[in-house]
Amino acid sequence: MAASVLFDAPGPKTVARHRVYTVAAYVGLLAVLAFIAWKLNESGQFAYALWEPVLTPNIIEVILVDGLLNTLKMAFSAIVLAVIFGLAFGIGKMSEHAWVRWPCWAVVEFFRAVPVLLLMVFIFYQFGGVTNGDPGAYWSVVAALTLYNGAVLAEVFRAGVNAVPAGQAEAAYALGMRKSQVMLIIMLPQAVKIMLPSIISQCVVALKDTSLGYAIAAVGLSTVSRLVYIEYGNQLQVVFVVAMLYISVNMVLTWIATLVQKRFVGEKSPIALESTDEPV
What's the mean pLDDT in 65-75? Predict the structure, then answer.
């Protein structure tokens, strides 16, 4: 018989009380959803005329091709560049040379602190041009997301390397390896297993932050959806469809993160004590 060592198992009264709390929470949630649906119906938001545009093949094509595809392109470009940026500056922060370590520290801390939207607008108006649909808008979004997420990933890489047991590096140095060899051959491969879930979680953040590109007219889901609901006057319906697309893509990324964690990292099983008949 297994028993958890983390907390005492609840008794029958506690189990019954928890069931009551669960039922009450579900009833409250359903009541809130019913109230929202009633208010939406009362204001005519379920009218077919408002939903018809988002069911039209031409509009669906615009949302999926011009919106979702460009959003995924921006996110993918930013993630690849952010990983390179984070790896370079994360290793730089661990350098023994102060002239490398301190500039890397300053860059990482600065871009972690600057709001992404502010950074995006600054880059666009300084380097990207001001024409709607210009490639400069695309690369301004990518650059801003690269700098911010790269700064976050730099800390992730640094923490991952520091989480590797010190004995691994000591053994490598005892074999005569140089510091660069220890980092690239010994430390990073082991640290990647620790960092993978965090890296993929940051990918979700980068994907969601592409929606800020509407501020500089970068063609993406947020910009395309705005053009659609301005023309048809169905903001709630278009936003709902776009939200479902974001949620679906993020669920796929979350599934990938879980799969990667199970495959390369491994999940910890709860510690259990098994009874034995052998005398202690």
Answer: 87
Tokens representing 215 are 């501020």
Nearest in space to 124 (alpha carbons), one of 105, 144, 107: 144
Token output for 222: 């947020």
Q: What is the pLDDT of residues 183-223, one digit of tens each?
A: 778 887 777 777 777 888 888 888 888 888 888 878 888 88
What's the rounded mean pLDDT across residues 57-79?
86
Whole-structure pTM value: 0.77
25: left (phi over 0), alpha (psi -120 to 50) or beta: alpha
Extended beta strands in the chain, E state: 2-4, 272-274
Residue 94 to residues 81, 90, 91, 263, Cα–Cα distance (Å)? 20, 7, 5, 29
Handedness of CA 100, 103, 109, 110 (dihedral sign): negative
Q: Do 66 and 135 form a contact (C-beta atoms < 8 A)? A: no
**DSSP assigned state of 279:** -
Instruction: Please tell me the distance from the alpha carbon of residue 26 to that of residue 24, in angstroms, as a whole number.
Output: 5
Closest C-alpha to 75, from 192, 224, 241, 213: 213
Alpha carbon 168 to its chain's center: 31
For residues 206 and 78, the answer to whether their CB atoms sit within 8 Å is: yes
Amino acid letter, 193: K
